[in-house]
Amino acid sequence: MRTDPFGMNSLKVLLIEDNPHDRRLAEAALREGADGFAVRCEVQSAACLTDGLATLDSAGGTLDAILLDLTLPDANGLGGLRAVRNLNARVPIVIVTGRSDLDTATAALKYGASDFLEKSEVQPRSLLRAIRYAIERKKSEAELTRLAQTDPLTGLFNRRAFFERLDHALVQHRRSELACAVVVFDIDRFKDINDLFGHKTGDDLLTAVATKLRANLRESDSIGRIGGDEFAILAPNLKSASDAMEIADKVLTSVRSIQDLDDVRVDPQISIGISVFPMDDSDAEAFVSHADMAMYKSKASKKGSVNFYDQRMDASVKERHTMKRKIRGDIDSGRFFLLFQPIIDAKSGAMIGAEGLARWRDIDGRVIAPDQFIPLAEESGSISSLGSRLLQEACCYIRACAENRTPIIPISLNVSTLQCCDPTFALTLISAIESFQIPPTMINVEITESTIIKNIDVTRNNLKLLKQYGVGVHLDDFGTGYSSLSLLRELPIDALKIDRSFVGDLGKISGSDPIVNAVVELSKRLGFATIAEGVETKAQADMLREIGVTALQGFHFSEPISGEDLTARMLDHAAAAMVA
Asked: Is the sign of the CA dihedral 97, 99, 101, 104 positive or negative?
């Protein structure tokens, strides 16, 4: 029993041939050859190119192959081949002609034919063999094209294919009254996910995002992975910019629905940028670049937000990129340094510690506040290096105090989410402390509630190691995050820092006195100290003392000062205590 060479039970062929005798011979050869392989063959015939094109158009994607004569009443030579290819390039074409010259055959293959037969060669087996090879060759070509256009991980369009489609869409929309948009996003802190959970989890997340996008966007939307974790959606045929916003909302909802991957909690966050044509009449590269700018504006304003491009963004985006490069270059140059804000015992007024506050001195001498560079350091992945650099500076200061026999107080340092979620963070910090040979009790780490919930298990393990070693643990900005009572009970915390927003509202009609009272009472029952930050007036300090807060910090006592000034104040406090 012969094997079906087509991998199918039926074969549908369009024969475009003007000579009735040749047409009958080709039809008979097709049917006889197909019968020999137990394949049902359906032949549709046309006596001229015009009728053949009409049949091809109506048949859509149901045809398996086309047999085309090069000498037709309304087309002579390769013109007919071009016309068929322009109408439908997916169906394989076998040229069947009375011409026998090699140049014609070569030209036909060059212009898209899959095979070439002279009419004298038309026999059942040779004709079926030519059709079989044409079909297989077309499948191979289609697969190579797919591979060349497809991102191998996600199955989406790759960067090259996406930009080709965008180029074509812009040409089409310049002739149309409809708009089109490019929606761009990447995954916030994607590098952290790779670093903390491994590249497999990162790849799984990218694949999950692609699956969600395909399931929730329109069939007409083209989705591409155009960078490591950067995706772009080409949304054509929009009536207005608000339609682009609806697509962005679908993207946000799709990505937010991804939570767990192989028991790893990821909760991906994205920020979106949109560029809309014709409001932004640019070429494809600039069009996507403008959507990128809008995306970075979203990142700067609020995670999960959406922004549209406008020309005013150019300057601010370029400035942000410049600052990120400067941050990476300045970490080891000594331009980042610490100022210290004293922490005061609420009862005695003694200085019992200080918080180390990061500052950045730019090359022009301008001192930049942390709210301007910390988010950029987090976005660029430089925050861990910066944190290590500031820890070294704190250890240097404590070591210098010990060597100079001047008073020493614990220094508290803020810890980023990336640092705290790194399984090696505690060991790295302990190693730094040991290298400077300072008491571990002289370092406190300050973490926020939002940092804890990013990866509770890793954070808990890090904090337990630090606590066992002797490092203090302070929960910063308490009351503004997501802490639960069970979490407070489980974590090795020494102190809660009451957020400045509650301190600022003390004594007001709509103030936060009950909240501060509750925090202090809770801390006492759990065995925590309480530190109120942002104390700016004597009245606030007095109220906090009366409530029972353990320690106070803020401009009422001192602005952030240098290490030299901090040492001088400690010496003054020590001298005053001796006199008293």
From this structure: negative
The DSSP bridge partners found for residue 342 are: 354
pLDDT one-digit tens code per residue, 136-145: 887 877 777 6
Work out the pLDDT band at 579, boundaries 50, 70, 90: low
pLDDT given for residue 408 in this prediction: 92
**Cα 518 to Cα 508: distance, rounded to the nearest angstrom:** 17
Residue type, position 432, single letter: A
Name residue 200's amino acid: K
Q: What is the pLDDT of residue 137?
A: 81
Give bridge partners of residue 187 from the DSSP assignment.
Answer: 270
| Strand positions, DSSP E, 74-132 | 75-76, 93-97, 115-118
Residues paired with 15 in a beta bridge: 45, 67
- Find tokens 């302070």 and name the residue: 474
Contact 248, 272 (CB under 8 A): yes
Smallest CA-to-CA distance from 68 within 60, 6, 88 is with 88
Nearest to 491, CA basis, from 469, 461, 471 = 461
Domain ranges of the chain: 10-149, 159-311, 321-579
The answer on pLDDT for 175 being more than 60 is yes
Q: Would you call the peptide bond into 278 cis, given omega within 30 degrees of 0 as the criterion?
A: yes
Which residues does 45 contact at the CB level (< 8 Å), separation at least 6?
14, 15, 16, 17, 23, 27
Q: Is the pLDDT of residue 313 over 80?
A: no
Burial class (CB in 10 A: 0-12, 13-18, 19+), 364: exposed
Fold of 321-579: TIM Barrel (3.20.20)
Collect all residues with Cβ–Cβ distance below 8 Å to 72 and sequence separation of at least 6. Answer: 16, 18, 48, 49, 80
Rg of the chain on CA atoms, in Å: 36
Distance CA 497, CA 478 (A): 6
User: Length of the chain, please?
Assistant: 580
Pick the residue with more confidence: 381 or 558?
A: 558
Tally: H helices and E strands in the chain: 22, 23
Q: Assess whether the region 10-149 and the region 159-311 belong to the same CATH fold.
A: no
Q: Three-state SS for 253?
A: helix
* Helix/strand/coil for 294: helix
- Report residue 292: phi and psi, to 5°: -60, -45
- CATH number for the domain running over 10-149: 3.40.50.2300
Measured from the Cβ of residue 493, the count of other Cβ atoms closer than 10 Å reads: 24
Tell the CATH topology of 159-311: Alpha-Beta Plaits (3.30.70)
